[in-house]
């Protein structure tokens, strides 16, 4: 494997372990009772080779997991690039060798895994690069809205793209939405609510969502650490950031809602230190060419 550390990656992918049990489930889902075609042809023991090649430019992700998956199927494989590496079309990504039965068993599962994760990583990288053009210190944070059941793999891909997780789930973060505040006593001052949150979760960063400039400034002045602006335009983000600076508040401004490569630069330049997005999870897969040879 080429030892080339991705320059955009701010979180080590090793922090997001993909267990063998998940890889085994992927294999079992595709061939729960073996490969009927290969068995019927009687070619399962014939030795062969398989290679993966990028059809289009991409930020690769999932190669290390594909190598392990191919190994779980009974063949051997080597990846030529680390997750998070940007490669050109035509780049050789992976080589594998083994009996035909094992190569065919792993083929489509490994290919689909690399294609899907590379799509997410590539879209995340595009947003990160756009954000950095607006402010090199801006961070792109992806929400917990990945497709159900795919969280670990989705996190692996956004990290490869240079993004960070926004929230891993409800249990480890404090993010107060307007929908939470609906159930509070109507006469409770915002500063009291924030103080109560801080007292009950003293070790947590307090984040609150705002949908208007006035609400954002009220939350900042009440002591919220991060104000997340939902679907506010860049000009409105700039207005909030300027007011926070004028008041000398330590509040971090986050922007959420419709963030993508086309507007990330504008939001970062307007003063959003964090850009919150779910867009990479909906990325189109990046095509991988698979070639077989009989040994």
Major sheet: 7 strands, parallel
Could you give me the name of the CATH homologous superfamily of the largest domain?
Aldolase class I
Count of all domains: 2
Q: How large is the count of helical segments?
A: 10
- Residue fraction in strands: 15-25%
Shape: elongated
**pLDDT < 50 stretches:** none
Structural class call reads: alpha/beta
CATH class label of the largest domain: Alpha Beta
As an assembly, this protein is single chain
Distance N to C terminus: 23 Å
Q: Architecture of the largest domain, according to CATH?
A: Alpha-Beta Barrel
Task: State the CATH topology of the largest domain.
Answer: TIM Barrel
Q: What value does the average pLDDT take?
A: 94
Helix content range? 40-55%
CA radius of gyration is 23 Å
Spell the H/E element sequence. HHEEHEEEHEHEEHHEHEHEHEE
Quickly describe the structure.
With 295 residues, the protein is an alpha/beta fold.
What is the topology?
Elements: H1 20-30, H2 36-41, E1 47-54, E2 58-59, H3 63-73, E3 76-79, E4 86-87, E5 92-99, H4 100-134, E6 139-142, H5 151-160, E7 164-165, E8 174-176, H6 178-181, H7 190-200, E9 206-210, H8 213-222, E10 226-230, H9 234-246, E11 252-256, H10 264-270, E12 274-277, E13 288-294
Parallel strand pairs: 6-7, 6-12, 8-9, 9-10, 10-11, 11-12
Antiparallel strand pairs: 1-5, 1-13, 2-4, 3-5
Helix pairs in contact: 1-3, 3-4, 4-5, 4-10, 7-8, 8-9, 9-10
